[in-house]
Specification:
There is one protein chain. This protein is mainly alpha-helical and 271 residues long. It contains ten helices and no strands.
């Protein structure tokens, strides 16, 4: 995004209720995913959860912890949506799907392989952001060094920064106008509720642009093969049947998977 048009984040300003809700959902998802990954890698035991009814009145702290756990388990159902839309997953899976269509193999690689590769690349690209969230929000919050509101604010900063880097100003302006928001003076003035959908449509535009570039060489092969078959009078032979081996050969010779993955990762990191 053009930094000359919108200045760098300044002092924190009060956000709307909808923006706070979006912040809470984003932090909850990252807290849950981070806790599961860390516990699985370290071999730690996940504590069990039990539900019981006691006649004695529990302590207020115990009631608060139980309610928080119930809220976290409820919000967990939104984790797949946030993981797909708030990360690099959308662009990656669309580009890989368009690559498969351009080659002419709608079922190879299978959907499981395509989704798995997209998730792996997403985790790789989002790893630096997760490290910032873990160091600035998750660990201090788990160690009771900061409160929940501060943890949410600290966790959302790297996510918003990532979204700003990949989002066009035009898309942000669209949702600010649709939401009847005041013109922002700083990046902190832009609510997450407007930034989130702007980021999604920017990712869709970028993915389709990359897919169009990928389609061109395979389209040229299809046109050449069709012209040759037509000139030879072999109109009954499907051109896709003849062009498929040549497209596969071209893709393998240029080391296509390396080029595609390299381009996708650099499109986010800018390295």
């Amino acid at each position: 995004m053009n930094e000359n048009i919108l200045p760098r984040p300044g002092t924190a300003l009060a956000t709307s209720k909808s923006s706070k809700s979006a912040k809470f959902l984003a932090l909850v998802v990252f807290l849950l995913l981070a806790s599961l990954l860390m516990s699985g890698c370290a071999g730690a035991n996940i504590p069990g959860v039990s539900l019981s009814v006691d006649g004695q009145s529990p302590q207020p702290k115990q009631v608060t912890s139980g309610v928080q756990l119930l809220v976290l388990m409820t919000v967990l159902s939104l984790a797949p949506t946030i993981l797909i839309l708030a990360t690099s997953f959308t662009r990656i899976v669309i580009v890989l799907s368009m690559l498969r269509s351009a080659i002419g193999t709608p079922s190879i690689p299978p959907n499981q392989v395509l989704i798995g590769l997209s998730l792996l690349l997403t985790f790789f690209i989002m790893a630096p952001i997760y490290k910032q969230i873990d160091a600035n929000a998750i660990q201090p919050y788990l160690n009771e060094q900061i409160d929940q509101d501060t943890a949410i604010t600290q966790a959302l900063k790297p996510i918003r920064e990532f979204m700003f880097q990949q989002t066009r100003e035009k898309d942000i302006q669209l949702f600010l106008e649709l939401g009847h928001e005041a013109p922002p003076k700083t990046l902190d003035d832009i609510p997450t509720l407007s930034l989130f959908p702007a980021f999604v449509i920017s990712e869709l535009r970028t993915a389709f642009t990359m897919g169009f570039v990928i389609y061109i060489p395979f389209l040229v092969i299809d046109l050449v093969v069709s012209s040759i078959l037509l000139s030879m009078g072999m109109m009954m032979l499907p051109p896709s049947l003849v062009s498929l081996p040549f497209k596969l050969l071209l893709f393998v010779m240029v080391d296509g998977w390396y080029l595609i993955v390299h381009s996708l990762v650099l499109s986010f990191t800018g390295g």
